Automatic annotation (TrEMBL):
PROSITE patterns: NEPRILYSIN. GO terms for molecular function: metalloendopeptidase activity. GO terms for biological process: proteolysis. It comes from Amblyomma americanum (Lone star tick). The lineage of its organism: Eukaryota, Metazoa, Ecdysozoa, Arthropoda, Chelicerata. This is Uncharacterized protein.
């Protein structure tokens, strides 16, 4: 799980750096960054979709959601930081 969380963090930071560099100005960055975050997180979870029947300690849903629960940016993008069941900063990896 640690590697999944760290890989997600690395990819997210790279996206943010690239997005800032390619945005013509700060206004464009601010306008589109929220939607870019949402798309990034959705695509990350789609990577784990599978019809595989092999035994695995984690389900595809767990592989998607557990690393995301360790990212405040995910909570901000989807407005889920204060909802029941979202652990947010309590299990930071």
């Amino acid at each position: 799980m640690y590697l999944l969380a760290q890989g997600l963090r690395l990819a997210f930071d790279a996206l943010m750096t690239e997005f800032r560099e390619l945005a013509p100005d700060y206004g464009v960055f601010v306008t589109h960054w929220h939607e870019a975050m949402r798309i990034f997180f959705l695509r990350y979870c789609l990577l784990w979709c599978s019809a595989s029947q092999r035994p695995d300690p984690l389900t595809p849903r767990e592989k998607c959601m557990l690393p995301l629960h360790n990212m405040p940016e995910f909570a901000k993008a989807f407005g889920c930081g204060n909802t029941a069941g979202f652990v947010g900063g309590r299990c930071r990896m």
